[in-house]
Design brief:
Radius of gyration: 23 Å
Structural class: alpha+beta
Order of helices and strands: HEEEEEEHEEEEEEHEH
Mean pLDDT: 88
Shape: elongated
Strand order of the largest sheet: 11-12-7-13
Number of strands: 13
Strand content: 25-35%
Largest sheet: 4 strands, antiparallel
Length: 194
C-alpha cells in the first residue's frame, strides 16, 4: 500500500512539461559533454548548461529529461530545462521572431546595415545595434527581430520597445505587433463625458 502511494506521489510531483520528450529533427544534432548540451541546426548553434538535478538521455529521434529526485526545486528545473531545449531546437531549425510596429505621425524606422535607426519624436535619432546572434529586418514601419535564441530575441525586442513605449492616450510609440492598446480618453474628453 505504501509503495503504491509512493508511486502515485512520484507521478504527481513530476513536471508535466518536463516528462514530455523533445523530438530531434533530422537536420539537428544534439551532443552532451560535461553537462553542456550543444544543439546544432541550419539556423545556428545553441548551448544549454544542464544542472546536476536532471539527467539527459539522447536517442535517435528524441531526447528525454529526467529528474534525479522529487524535490520541488528539481521539479522546477526539470520543466525549465525541457522548455529551454525545445526552444533551442525550434530556434536552430525555424528560428524565433518578435515583430514591433512604430506608430505615430512622423515616426519612422530605417535600417542602417545591421543596425536600425529610430526617429520617434526626440530631437535626435536613436540607433540600436543587435545582440550577437540577432538580426533586424525592416518592412515599412515594422521591425522584425530574428534569431535562434528565444531569450535574446525577446530581450532585444524589449529594448527597442523601451525607447518609446506606446502612449496610452495617443496611438504613438513602439508596440509589439500582437499587443493590444487600450487607449484612454484625454482629460478634456473625460470632462466632457461627465
Amino acid at each position: 500500500m505504501s509503495g503504491d502511494n509512493q508511486n502515485l506521489n512520484s507521478k504527481e510531483i513530476l513536471s508535466r512539461i518536463g516528462k514530455q520528450p523533445v523530438t530531434i529533427p533530422s537536420d539537428v544534432s544534439i551532443t552532451n559533454e560535461n553537462s553542456e548540451l550543444t544543439v546544432k541546426g541550419p539556423k545556428g548553434t545553441e548551448t544549454i548548461n544542464v544542472p546536476k538535478e536532471v539527467i539527459v538521455e539522447i536517442f535517435d529521434a528524441e531526447i528525454l529529461i529526467k529528474p534525479t529526485s522529487f524535490e520541488k526545486n528539481t521539479k522546477a528545473l526539470h520543466g525549465m530545462v525541457r522548455s529551454i531545449l525545445d526552444n533551442a531546437v525550434i530556434g536552430v531549425t525555424k528560428g524565433h521572431r518578435k515583430s514591433l510596429e512604430v506608430l505615430g505621425v512622423g515616426y519612422r524606422v530605417e535600417q542602417k546595415q545591421k543596425n536600425i535607426v529610430l526617429n520617434v519624436g526626440f530631437s535626435h535619432t536613436v540607433e540600436i545595434q543587435p545582440l550577437d546572434g540577432v538580426g533586424f529586418t525592416v518592412e515599412n514601419n515594422t521591425i522584425h527581430v530574428d534569431g535562434s535564441n528565444k531569450q535574446k530575441v525577446g530581450e532585444m525586442a524589449a529594448q527597442i520597445r523601451k525607447v518609446r513605449p506606446p502612449n496610452a492616450y495617443k496611438e504613438k510609440g513602439i508596440k509589439y505587433i500582437d499587443e493590444e492598446l487600450h487607449l484612454k480618453p484625454g482629460k478634456t474628453a473625460a470632462t466632457t463625458g461627465e
